[in-house]
Amino acid sequence: MSNRRDFFRGAGAAFLGAAVVSRVGAASLPEAVVQSSAATQLPPPPSNGRPYQPMVTLNGWSLPWRTKDGVKEFHLVAEPVVREIAPGMKANLWGYNGTSPGPTIEAVEGDRIRIFVTNQLPEVTSIHWHGLLVPSGMDGVTGLTQPPIGVGKTFLYEFVLQRPGTFMYHPHADEMVQMAMGMMGMFIVHPKEPRQLKVDRDFGFILNAYDIEPGSATPKVNTMLDFNLWTFNSRAFPGIDPLVARTGDRVRIRIGNLTMTNHPIHMHGPHFAVTGTDGGWVPKSARWPEVTTDIAVGQMRAIEFDALAGDWAIHCHKSHHTMNAMGHGVPTMIGVDQSDLARKITSLVPDYMVMGDRGMHDMAEMEMPIPDNTLPMMTGTGPFGPIGMGGMFSVVKVRDDIRPGDYKDPGPYKHPAGTLAGEYTAETAEAVRTPAPQADSNTLQVRKPRGHEGH
Ligand SMILES: [Cu+2]
């Protein structure tokens, strides 16, 4: 005990926070487990230590540890990775242990943990444990609390987990570049008493964003706000796995935001309560029902609800965040008669298509040619046709007959008789319309949408 205290108090600044592990000591490093798949890897129950119910990281995985002298030891390797954003597009990102985001670290309140961080990037890095209460020297701020982790070096972070909650980790060295490249992960501290805060299903993901030029694979790292790929755990719809539950399950979804803007996350169907914030767990008496919760930059939120059968969309409500890269920079064409322009262009480019003069839904139906390694702006197919979504969108799929521990996509929902919207055909009547306003000399004249002869 006194040794520990001396270590923290007595060591010099460079040593206090994060010590360089010598090459001699490298042989005793815990194994750095690596993943390359972007599929959701179900976390195994804890192999030792206090019991807890693991979290399912959406399109991600949890990092195994080893226990040495009662301390849980993890090994993160910061390195370039290739991440499939969705089928049809791969990105050159930076991450940890083969993936971006890096693996979720899960441990229990009161655990002492040791995290070895090896830097295989072409530049220096560090890790900040976002939201965790750690000794100042373990906080990972390059220059302020530690020197940078040099290329090829390994640093050691060690601390005791003070309180349960949803946290994150990310670099605090060349932050703008390293986070634009995908360096981040979740850090879950489970309560010491496993019955406390118990749910049937616990999901988590990080909101992140990239600016990748259509046809290229490496993010532009100097983009400030105008990102073109909005993702859950570096995946864009339809590459995001569904969140599967059984009717009546108590479901928790933990969401962290490491983009450069806020995201109002909206879930259809069952109302939820925000049960966890950056500051910890919200007492029951202080919760209120919601269908949308805004998650600001750097925040974490846990929401909980009782699952109702159905296919329920969950998405960011900024509608350009449910679009993929090709949607950005497309001019508004609603109400614009393009037929003359189309005729002229078609004489030069025979395959030219006129798009969007009646809205853009048609684009979701078209198999329009796009550059290699790019996602169509609105995509995904459901049982009733194109979904016309991209980016930050997934589906909470709740069924009566899902077994505990089963997270496989159950396919489309079978709607009970009398509960499905459809065309009304019993009688035909003149469609009810608001009369068009009468134009006078002060009214701006706008050409009305016309037929779609360009197709
Ligand atoms: Cu958003």
User: Unreliable runs, pLDDT <50, ≥5 residues?
Assistant: 1-26, 451-455
Q: What share of the residues lie within helices?
A: under 10%
Query: Which assembly state applies to the chains in this document?
Result: single chain
Largest sheet: 8 strands, mixed
Could you say which overall geometry the principal axes of the C-alpha atoms support?
globular
Word description of this protein:
This protein is mostly beta strands and 455 residues long. The chain has helices at residues 2-10, 13-16, 175-180, 339-348, 361-365, and strands at residues 19-20, 56-57, 66-68, 71-86, 89-96, 105-108, 112-119, 128-130, 154-160, 165-170, 185-190, 201-210, 229-232, 243-246, 250-257, 263-267, 272-277, 280-281, 289-290, 292-295, 300-306, 310-316, 379-382, 385-389, 393-399. It contains five helices and 25 strands. The strands form five sheets. Strands 2, 12, 13, 15, 17, 18, 19 and 21 form an eight-stranded mixed β-sheet that branches. Strands 1, 3, 4, 5, 7 and 9 form a six-stranded mixed β-sheet that branches. The protein has a five-stranded mixed β-sheet with strand order 14-25-22-16-20, with no helix packed on it. The longest helix has 10 residues, at 339-348. Copper (II) ion binds at residues 230, 263, 316, 318, 321, 392.
